[in-house]
Specification:
By secondary structure, this protein is mainly alpha-helical. The chain is built from two helices and no strands. About 4% of the residues have low confidence.
Length: 113
Amino acid sequence: MSRRQDSIRAIRVTQVMSQSQPGGEPHIVRFPRTPRRRPEPDKLSDYARSPEPPGEYRRRMLVNGAVFLFVLALIGAALWLADSMATMRRNQDCVLSGRTGCTQVEAPPSRRW
């Protein structure tokens, strides 16, 4: 065993030491070593991808573009909503403080005779 494995095993052993034995002696639980399993080469074929049909790449790119546009629309809607909420709060603060002329009234200029 290497030094690293010894230190890991020692840490693991000290973590499970129990002081509940009669006479105050610690009880050490030994863990059996489990060998690492590597997948067999013939089993890897289960995870291999089949070749992509020719139209699949185009379809995927179109879906990605549609999702990108949808996300941009959501971001735009969120910015518009945040701006309108800030404007409403500003107007409400102005009115509640007792000032007049808080909002801009857009009216066409009147014609004089």
